[in-house]
Amino acid sequence: MIRVIRSIGQMKDLSLRIKKAGKTIGFVPTMGYLHDGHISLVSMARQACDIVVVSIFVNPKQFGPGEDLKKYPRDFSRDKKLLMKAKADIIFYPAVKEMYPDGYRTNVYVSDLSGKLCGASRPGHFNGVTTIVAKLFNIVKPDTAYFGQKDFQQQVIIKKMARDLNMGVKISALPTIRERDGLAMSSRNAYLSKVERKNAPVIYRSLKFANQLIKSGVKSSTAIRSAITKLIKSKPGFKIDYIAVSDPETLEDKKTINGRTLVAVAVYLGKTRLIDNIVVR
Amino acid sequence: MIRVIRSIGQMKDLSLRIKKAGKTIGFVPTMGYLHDGHISLVSMARQACDIVVVSIFVNPKQFGPGEDLKKYPRDFSRDKKLLMKAKADIIFYPAVKEMYPDGYRTNVYVSDLSGKLCGASRPGHFNGVTTIVAKLFNIVKPDTAYFGQKDFQQQVIIKKMARDLNMGVKISALPTIRERDGLAMSSRNAYLSKVERKNAPVIYRSLKFANQLIKSGVKSSTAIRSAITKLIKSKPGFKIDYIAVSDPETLEDKKTINGRTLVAVAVYLGKTRLIDNIVVR
Hints:
The structure is a homodimer. Helices cover 38% and strands 21% of the residues of chain A. By secondary structure, chain A is α/β, with parallel strands linked by helices. In chain A, strand 9 and strand 10 form a beta hairpin. The longest helix of chain A is centred in the middle third of the chain and has 16 residues, at 125-140. The mean pLDDT of chain A is 97. Strand 5 (106-110) of chain A pairs antiparallel with strand 5 of chain B.
């Protein structure tokens, strides 16, 4: 039986007992509405750790004004079934008031990294992410926490935070899981209309094309950006938020492509914001 | 024998071993150049906990440009002797590069509270404090951490941080220790000239006078501030930074005095910044 815990105090006590028994905790923080990307993280935690904790919390702090906090998809009973099937042990499922009681005032932020890429379009977003992840780490006390590479910038920032603040949590970033047609799995894919869904795979196709161009010797990031833009714009309904050609660690823009390179894309397809990326070696 | 540890990794391992053995850790974070105020915190930790850890780290992040980081007094061998006498078990004494390696980027801050009182005169100061304390808590893993009430705002902010981020560390704030003539003990008292040192006790005298006024029915914070200013200015060499009459929890200014009230003073005596406070019940 999977255990559902809603109180911070109970979760902390349970984690302490698990640690005192000498067992390891693998942790997958999520906002729920789980897909195979999340489940792949749970499976990895299941293989590597004694106890698997999954949190489900739609974190208001990481949504900006006018973003999709209210309509963000939620379905706890479906999530619970998926997590039982994936053999998770504990679901930590706190209310917003439990995590952010009245008078809440503390923030964790990672400078430089948080203002680039998605951080430029979504000011405050990553501060919301690092704050909630710091809280969750303190509550759940994981040995290893699992994140998806689809949110590439997120895992870079969380690794930095964990190292800088000496949290003693290992951050494991796992490959993006995709639909058969290449679209990166995301809870936000549920927003797409039938036509949008049909056109969405062009995002990943454009990344694969960029990969080919780089492998064939293209060194100019401007050329790469143009090629991606052109391919995505060949389909209707897209607005490009950014196309970044960057260092995968510092997230600094690269003008000339050399060494490991992150190619990351954020687009609006209708009203839905979608992101994807590849790292070219 | 007292143990001196300079590496974060070693301190973390040792703390983990102590916790696994079921022992409690009492922690006193300091910037060294210890005085009886620090020692009273160590004594309390000694009484309440199995293992007492004291950190000595002059934290550059909490000093502003033009402040006294470089000349801040340091004397490790003297501190070590005092801590042996006080029966501390472990001194954690890391280098600056160990705590803030190249590329360090993460900050912890408590909004609202950090901008008031000392935070208004020392922008960034409390962000430096909360960041280093968050790191130290993660490294040392204390059950209880001890702070002095002389730095009243500091302990308010650290309590808030520990609660907000679910750190699981109890914060114990202990009364200010004073010289015989009433001057609050502070490592910065070492900066005072003979004449300044002779005049310094007027700070605490002015706070005691404020206490009397409030007890005798004065309700106007303006009247209290005037009385304190007048008394302090009766001695030469003082420049008042602020006099606050505030709520001891929110640190909000009180116009009319009612309930528990914090009266806090920051002055420059020559070039030395001194602070002191009382809470009137």
